[in-house]
Amino acid sequence: MTTAKTVLVADDTAFVRDRFKAAIEGAGHRAVTVKSAAELLARVRTDLPVLDLLVIDLRLPHASGIEVVRSIRKMDEGRLPILVFSGTVTSAEEVRELAALGVAGYVNEYSAVQHILPSLAPHLFPDNFNRRGSPRVVLGIPIAYRFGNTIAAALTLNLSRGGIAIRTTSPLERAAKARLRFRLPGEKKDIEAEAHVRWSDTKVGMGLQFDRMSEEDQRSIDDFVDAHFFRPRK
Asked: Fold for domain 136-228?
């Protein structure tokens, strides 16, 4: 039996709060939603012992997102996994500051409801995701991929130095070649890569191994993964 978890979602947009709440509660977990930094900090202070995950808008009104995360870290001493809505990150400097504060990953605030839980699961149930030796970042950002004359768009599941996993119900066959284009949170330039499919599952998506990209793009991925890869918390 799956243990129910409590997720605190902070966003000033009702559309985002309601969709995440529906996805979390639809899976049998508890969602607590807030729309301001003051509410967020008050909830963390009050409910810290029962919270399992925070999902945060970095652009809450009348507050600096970095300072809010820093305030949370003073209260929880680094215990809680924190995910940030990727669309609210505006610079690579913010990404570096968030990494220093132990932010565990990024999730797209406009993910379809059915994609939300898979992006949160590695942080809610870390013991189920510890089998891979390669460091990876749980990352829910848009990605475009081209195979033959077809271009498709999807969301990523996670990123490692050597590849990327994509959530799709129409994955390509194993060994299929594709060209990828995506942008890391806080960056102003797209990463482009050639890759091939290593695994494919219609219930989950597909994993692609990078075959070729520029040295600059590979460095960007390496630095991002080194800063953010998922470390299980005890």
From this structure: Thrombin, subunit H (2.40.10)
